[in-house]
Amino acid sequence: MSRRCMMLTCALLALLALGAVQVEGTSSCTIVPRSKWKAKASECNQRLNLPVRYVIVSHTAGSTCNSPALCEQQARNVQYYHMHSLGWCDVGYNFLIGEDGLVYEGRGWKTKGAHTGATWNPISIGISFMGNYMERVPPARAIRAAQNLLSCGVELGALTRNYEVKGHRDVQQTLSPGDQLYALLRKWPHYRE
């Protein structure tokens, strides 16, 4: 076995050992499941009608995280705030993106989020980058993780092939997803104002 092949095999085995690889149907998407980041049980019961056409991108405007341990903790912090301070049934986002380059399962593909209000929540997936992106962009690995998630959503039938990406500020009066992330987002192929 070549050295490169051996390294790729080791990397895949390491991800499997961490529980970060989730296979649904014929797709393999790298998503850290709720059980891995020790999420509290969801109290949500409203389903999304899939596939949805819209993806709303936000930022948490809080602390960043750049390792799995720190991002798991930050995902728990966001969930705690949403459930205990805001009184929501779970973390509001369908997915969270860490600066470690991993996607953390929030409400997932099938459950309606609480990220963008009554008009957009029933017709969109909400993904939020963990951190504040007013002054800087997320690292490339976090951007790749988000874009891979969207490809996965199409492959799984959760997003329409002609899905549209919108910044949080495009649909609500907010600074989210931050000036720098928003400028980058506007260059994505599926972005629409």
List the helices and strands and how they pair.
Layout: H1 3-18, E1 21-24, E2 27-30, E3 52-59, H2 68-85, E4 95-97, E5 103-105, H3 117-120, E6 124-129, H4 140-156, E7 159-167, H5 168-171, H6 179-185
Parallel strand pairs: 3-6, 3-7, 4-6
Antiparallel strand pairs: 1-2, 4-5
Keywords:
alpha/beta, 193 residues
Q: How many angstroms does the end-to-end distance come to?
A: 49 Å
Would you count the extended β strands for me? 7
Rg over alpha carbons: 16 Å
Shape: globular
Mean pLDDT, as a whole number? Answer: 89
**Coarse structural class:** alpha/beta
Low-confidence stretches: 4-26
Strand order of the largest sheet: 5-4-6-3-7
Percent strand equals 15-25%
Fraction in helix: 25-40%
Structure description:
The protein has 193 residues and is α/β, with parallel strands linked by helices. It has 6 helices and 7 strands, in the order H-E-E-E-H-E-E-H-E-H-E-H-H. The strands form 2 sheets. The protein has a 5-stranded mixed β-sheet with strand order 5-4-6-3-7, sandwiched between helices. The protein has a two-stranded antiparallel ribbon with strand order 1-2. A hairpin with a 5-residue loop joins strand 4 (95-97) and strand 5 (103-105). The chain is globular, with a radius of gyration of 16 Å.
Please give a quick description of this structure.
The chain is of the alpha/beta class. It is built from 6 helices and 7 strands, in the order H-E-E-E-H-E-E-H-E-H-E-H-H.
